[in-house]
UniProtKB/TrEMBL annotation:
Residues 346-353 form the Cytosol aminopeptidase domain. Its EC number is 3.4.11.1, 3.4.11.10. This is Probable cytosol aminopeptidase. Mn(2+) 1 binds at D271, D348, E350. SUPFAM superfamilies: Macro domain-like, Zn-dependent exopeptidases. The gene is pepA. Binds 2 manganese ions per subunit. The keyword Hydrolase applies. The keyword Lipid metabolism does not apply. Presumably involved in the processing and regular turnover of intracellular proteins. Catalyzes the removal of unsubstituted N-terminal amino acids from various peptides.
Length: 501
């Protein structure tokens, strides 16, 4: 689908959407169009008992008289003084869905000028185009028998407004993030016979053309470094485990660059639970247990695509958790790269083992001041927060505030969760330095406490448990049903606000 920008002219054919205020109030262009069509807009507004011009409400007028248009769509924007940037994104995404449902192939969205709007018209149009682009994502490569009427029809959406050139420039800046978001959605959506540690690395190598440096540690190299926590998880798989390291030196500093921020992703490309095997029901969902790694991959693509002025590291611990004769067992004790020993109580609490070594590796090698990890880590976070917000755990209040603000500004919400000594003590065991699970209560918190034991002194750290937000069971304005890439926009905004101001 193509997004374009033009002067605010009424097209000679096709579909025209026009913004309408709350209570069905028309702007100057809407009033002019109403006159040209013999009052068809006014009649439609009076006849509709449900359309009130609220945000992302739509009303279709078919074959209006007086013009050659096939359809006019009244697009509600609510009260402009209360319409945020995210509302304009949602308008674009919802309009795209509405037009596809109607079978429209080409459409123009005409923006009225409203003085009371809190978002400038050119930026509002750019954001609407961006929302439409994000909503246009489809993972359909394996649908070989899909009926034509089920496929999207919209090929071109033109956003018409007075300041169309500035809007086009703003949109192009936003658009640079879309391929990275789609890349994350793609790898998270792929089945485990397509995306596994080695093939994930091959996907990451596509970033080299953008200037991202790619390094890979195989099992022998990780064993030399003592990364037995990560390696233990993959013992039962025929696929070799990998540690993917991506570096983006965007700050242009001379000499040996410093990397102030690192992002670490859990990349369990399929999780059976290992010897502590999961129930068969819904196990197919465990193809996206590498959601954290997918987000880190997409984020690095975004940072490189927009030439972010930051030196950033992305590390992904890539494994498969499978049961066979070599698989890790409950009761085993492994030694992590940090030297701390871990008693394995449950082999299905594997993501934290992968992250333990990945976190230690990135701190030892790159000395970042801030480390943020992402993982589909616990089912307990769904019990706590449902499927609308990621759990945020941290040792630094300033970092928490920055991530919360970034979440609010990108619709990728996070919720600050508690931590404390009473939770940490639940990890103690007589057999080793710690065990890999606590008890039944506070499971997402004890998992975070486990990770905190692998954060070095003086490092600001945040853990995002994205188990509830990595996959959506329903369509949202800018996120179709399926893989969400929740975290890519959040962390890109965090980088822009923290390191590029």
């Amino acid at each position: 689908m193509q997004i374009g920008f033009s002067a605010p002219d009424i097209p000679g054919k096709g579909t025209l959407a026009i913004t309408v205020l709350e209570d069905g109030k028309l702007g100057e262009a809407g009033a002019d169009l109403d006159r040209k069509t013999g009052g068809s807009l006014t009649r439609a507004l009076k006849a509709s008992s449900r359309f009130k011009g609220k945000k992302s409400e739509f009303l279709d007028i078919l074959a209006p008289q007086g013009v050659d248009l096939d359809r006019i769509v009244l697009a509600g924007i609510g009260n402009p003084s209360e319409t945020s940037e995210l509302d304009w994104e949602a308008l674009g995404g919802n309009l795209l869905y509405h037009l596809n449902q109607a079978g429209v192939g080409e459409a123009t969205l005409l923006f009225e000028a409203f003085d009371e709007s809190q978002v400038a018209q050119d930026r509002a149009a750019a954001l609407a185009g961006y929302g439409a682009s994000l909503r246009s994502y489809r993972f359909d490569r394996y649908r070989t028998r899909e009926k034509q009427e089920k496929k999207p029809t919209l090929e071109t959406l033109t956003l018409a407004l007075k300041d169309h050139k500035p809007a086009d420039k703003l949109y192009k800046d936003l658009e640079r993030t879309v391929p990275g978001i789609f890349m994350a959605r793609d790898v998270i959506s792929e089945p485990a016979n397509v995306i596994y540690p080695e093939s994930f690395v091959q996907e990451a190598r596509k970033l080299e053309k953008l200037g991202v440096k790619i390094e890979v540690l195989g099992e022998a190299e990780m064993r030399e470094r003592g990364m037995h926590a990560l390696l233990g998880v993959g013992e039962g798989s025929q696929r070799d485990s990998q540690l993917l390291v991506m570096t983006w030196p965007g700050a242009d500093k001379k000499g040996e660059p410093e990397f102030p921020v690192a992002f670490v992703g859990k990349g369990v490309c399929f999780d059976t639970g290992g010897i502590s095997i999961k129930p068969a029901a819904n196990m197919e969902d465990m193809k996206w247990d590498m959601g954290g790694a997918g987000v880190v991959l997409g984020l690095m693509h975004v940072l490189a695509s927009r030439k972010a002025k930051v030196n950033a590291i992305g590390v992904c611990g890539l494994v498969e958790n499978m049961p066979d004769g070599r698989a890790q067992r409950p009761g085993d004790i492994v030694t992590s790269m940090s030297g701390q020993t871990i008693e394995i109580i449950n082999t299905d609490a594997e993501g934290r083992l992968v992250l333990a070594d990945a976190l230690w590796y990135v701190q030892e090698r790159f000395k970042p001041k801030t480390v943020i990890d992402l993982a589909t880590l616990t089912g307990a976070i769904l019990v706590a927060l449902g499927k609308s917000q990621a759990g945020l755990f941290s040792n630094n209040d300033e970092l928490v505030e920055s991530l919360e603000n970034a979440g609010k500004n990108t619709s990728e919400a996070v919720w600050h969760m508690p931590m404390g000594e009473e939770f940490d003590q639940l990890l103690n065991t007589d057999s080793a330095d710690m065990k890999n699970t606590g008890n039944r209560w506070g499971g997402s918190i004890t998992a975070a406490q486990f990770l905190k034991r692998f954060i070095q002194e003086g490092v600001s750290w945040a853990h995002l448990d994205i188990a509830g937000v990595t996959w959506s069971e329903k369509d949202k304005p800018t996120v179709p049903k399926g893989a969400t890439a929740h975290g890519v926009r959040l962390l890109d905004r965090y980088v822009a606000d923290t390191f590029e101001k």
